[in-house]
Fold:
Amino acid sequence: MISADLWNWTSPVWLVVAMLAIGYLGVARGLSRGQFAMFLFGMLLLATAFVSPVGVLSDGYLFSAHMVQHLILLLAVPACVLLALPKERAAEWFCRPRLDRIGRWLAIPSVGWILGVGAMWFWHVPVLCSTATEQPALGIVRDASLVFSGLAFWWPIYAPVDRYRLHPLSGIAYLFSACLGCTLLGIYITFAPVSVCPVFANPVDRIGILTSLYDAGFTPGVDQHLGGLMMWVPPCVLYVAAIIGLLRRWYSTTDEPSHHLFPMPH
Amino acid sequence: MYILLAVFFLVVGGIEATLIRIQLATPNNTFLSPQLFNQLFTMHGTTMVFLVGMPIFTGFSNYLVPLMIGAKDVAFPRLNAMSFWMLPFGAFLLYFSFFTGSAPNAGWFSYVPLSTKPYSLGPGIDYWLLGLIVMGIGSIAGAINIIATVLCLRAPGMSLQRVPLFVWIMLMQAMLIVITIPPLNSALALLCIDRWLEAAFFEPVRGGSALLWQHFFWVFGHPEVYVFALPAFAMISEVIPVFSRKPIYGYAFVAGSSTVILLLSYGVWAHHMFAVGLGVGANIFFAGMTMLIALPTGVKIFNWTATMWGGTLQFTTAMLFAIAFLIQFVIGGLTGVMFAAVPIDWQVTDTYFVVAHFHYVLIGGVIFAVFAATYYWFPKITGRMLDERLGKWQFWLWVVGFNGTFMVQHFLGVMGMPRRVYTYADNPGWALLNGISSVSVIFMVVGTLVLVWNIVASLLHGQIAGKNPWGAFTLEWSTESPPPEYNFESLPEIKSRRPVWDAEHPELADWTSSKTPKDRGWRPDRAKVCAWAFVISEAVFFMLLLVTYVVFNTRQAADGPSSATALNVPRTGVFTLFLLSSSFTFWLSERNLRAGKHTVFLQWLGVTILLGIIFLCGQAWEYAGLLTSDIDIHRNLFASTFFTVTGFHGLHVTGGLIALAIMYALGRKNSLDTSHAKPYGAIGVYWHFVDVVWIFVFAIIYLRFYQL
Structure:
């Protein structure tokens, strides 16, 4: 199964990674080791999403691989990038009124929520899902939009500047409701009798691995089943992990920061 | 009241259990008929879950939460009365079925199709359904009350990071109830419609899905386990520190892991369905999730153990029960983790191994915690101490009886004895083990009699307790025992998690050594909290109904009408606009009420009501059209789901209109002013919610957004 065909070493994603890395090293000084590691990890994930079998198989072969790629782009990479931003520098940038306005806008929880959860739903409308897989241009739009919505989604939780972050308790509600959103979609995909992304039901066998895939048990039915479960369970586990982080943040503050954009919920 | 009711039904459920065990004491026994046996285990399960487990914890949290946060009473005393009286009413419905000669007999989870009309003709299941719906509504109301109490009525100085663990965990439990009962209610509603109106949601023969019931039931059923376990954790988290003479070890871990349990418990229900055939993928994922949820519970066990470590342990009866809880709950938890492994589950599911597992969790864990709580808080509630010597008798009787009854059931399960059989053949070893199990019940029965005797004797001439007999830490111990009607004369200053300790030992006060965030003094409005909690619970209810709709309508119905052929979309679109604009007019009226412009407020409110009525008329028109063209609720699954979803929505609109009409009438009598803006806003939350639901209903049913 693991053949050289399954790796796409010449993927243009390297260019993106290189540009991001140069940009990051250029602007970011005074990094902690953890932040740097976080950035490296994010870039590694980004490359994996396209270079490894995940990227190759998601290109028309396996819906479940597509879902893994989708989640890496939407959830994992943006979170890593936000966490990797140096706080002091970011505080300087967001002192500028224009950037500050953007930061404030992104800090409105409904914006991030709708962009994040909406991106999941929007790109799994069957027509869009199929076309984006078949047309490379639309595929790039999709991937880019996923990363940006992911950034918007995580902004209220992991923004580099504290004043844009939600109160931890509101953050928990935010993440929990998002978990509900992707759970519903996951359940729908898992149990839907029809193909959610028809292009994966009849793949074009570009590199001659289709038979071996089917032999290994990845028939379209099983594949969509797995894809739905990918949408359902891993994001929720990730959100719960983030919630644990928020709880830790909440209990470790001995004095509440005085300036919050939003009061507590409820 | 709650606690008394729960104790009464504990006895009833216990008698049922004793009868079951007598029947099973020897092979091929004929003490009970198979039918009666089925009824007894169904009623035993239902009673213990809904009439003992739920009310006893609601009772404790009702009594203790206001005391612990320094409040005079719960946020909504009248709502509290309502939610209590729903219980005996539901219980009456449930037990009345015995007089009709056919008590429910389909097991406590009433799997379809066994519980559908063709297989259960008698009225037993109907009583079961009604009783559960009534009790479900009651517990949601009770939970909303607790949420509002904790969020809105904390004494000055008590920030949310400073509340006693009991309060925090009960808050989590209340939130869990709010989101976990609605799936049950929607499943019950669907089954009612199946049984009474001949729909076919759960009848595979007519296109329905029996699996759907299992999904819905366990979406409720699994979190329900935590609805029981969390309060037990809450009680233990108070008892162990006091009798170890130490603060709890790792407050944040105990509190945080409770929150995590709340979140995770909602995503593991399918592990009750490993044997159903969901597919390998689903089984693997759910097995993983299930093992994950063992982690936060494990964290707590370490916290409690670490609290005892190096403490000055005082082995009072309450503490003994708490320690037994720890050990037995770990056993129950470990067998739970075994079940998370799919192959083991396949092997032993529906055997006595399962019975042993959940009785270890529910009795060895939960009931032992309740006993600990009883011995700990009885002095506060009655003013008199329970007798320690009798208490220890009860403790040892229960430990022997409980472990004797259920430990052997593990072996029986592994040997292959299925649960819910009314008798069994004389297989090697079975008679002996079942005999041990049944004989041990005697110990528990005697232990319970000792407890009852202890309570009666102590009430009459127990030792007078005084304010703080245990040297405990939390606010309820700073007032008289029993507390006066208004709970407190004066409160100690709250600067840490253990205010009473601080007051009694100023030189060792907590706030000098470990800092907690200061209270900012901000409390949300209780009407708003109530409205939002209610709306969330309703949202879950509608979400499940819509899921049902989508499940049954992903393909065009081949056997009759479907949404494409039967519905007039543009016409309903117009009526939708009426409903949506009513949200806008409501907003206008609310603004005017706040600004004190009385006449304008009344005008806009009138317009809102009018728009709502127009919408309902539109719906009636549509229904009439469908019914005359012979499309009614039992025609096919599209019709059933359509009428169910829109019908429930219509009912909610009607409810909202009644509330608005009451407001209008009050407004006409000039008894509304700006001070009523907050409750009015709460009604507004509900009204907007109903409109938002309609947007989803319209998008899904009429515009068919899911049928892509």
Remarks:
- Residues 256-266 of chain A have pLDDT under 50 and may be disordered.
- DSSP finds twelve helices and no strands in chain A.
- Chain A touches chain B at residues 125-127, 169, 172, 176, 179, 183-184, 187-188, 190-194, 222, 225-226, 229, 232-233, 236-237, 240, 243-244, 247-248, 250-256, 263-264, 266 (CB under 8 Å).
